Amino acid sequence: MTLVAELLISFLLVVGGIFILVGSWGLAKLPSLMTRLHGPTKATTLGVGSCLIASMIYFPVFGGTYSAHELLITLFLFLTAPVSANMIAKAHIHRQGRGIDPNPSDNISDGLPSPPGTSDWATFAGAGKTVAAEQDETGGARSADEVGGE
Amino acid sequence: MTGSILPFALGFAIICVSASILLNLFRLWRGPLSADRILAVDTLTINAIAMIVIFGIAYATSSYFEAALLLAMVGFVGTVAYCKFLLRGDIVE
Predict the structure, then answer these.
(1) What is the ipTM of this complex?
(2) What pTM, to 2 d.p., does this model score?
């Protein structure tokens, strides 16, 4: 039983370490922000979840105590990682729509294509999307009614 | 108490997370945009949580989990605050 638990913990630790390394390698290597978002949000979260499951197996078997802290951390990370990635992507596309963040130098465009139909994307509703319109409106970086739903 | 496999797995995981932290620091240093740096800090927080959990297994103490839980919460709130600052120019309006 102890040997099986130890093998399982070791397997989960190795898998978690590999996933964490792959996620951070993607963060360092991929060419633009929208592609860089994929690595930490998926691979690193999975690796941390694997390490936490290993810890959740380790302490009841070897330490004798069981605590729900690992489960809380796993739940919290799995809930918050997509939200924070969505916030980063939203901040990026709004800044890029205003011409604050330039396109990356390797010719991979991060800009959103226009949706089919006449209306613009919902996240740009109420926002001056183009750079020229923004400069006509305020002339500054701050615009109070940029995001409608927030 | 433990056999012979677990220390090697722990060492491998610690090496992997340390290399990941170095890669995150590289992106934090290089990142051409502000959003890149926010993403690097967010990933750095997650890697720090993984490092704390692995050290908790290595030292067989469960008193590090409060630190990991606190780091998860503060990291998420910090990321959202940075993004709100980029979006609105202000955090609490």
Answers:
(1) 0.90
(2) 0.81
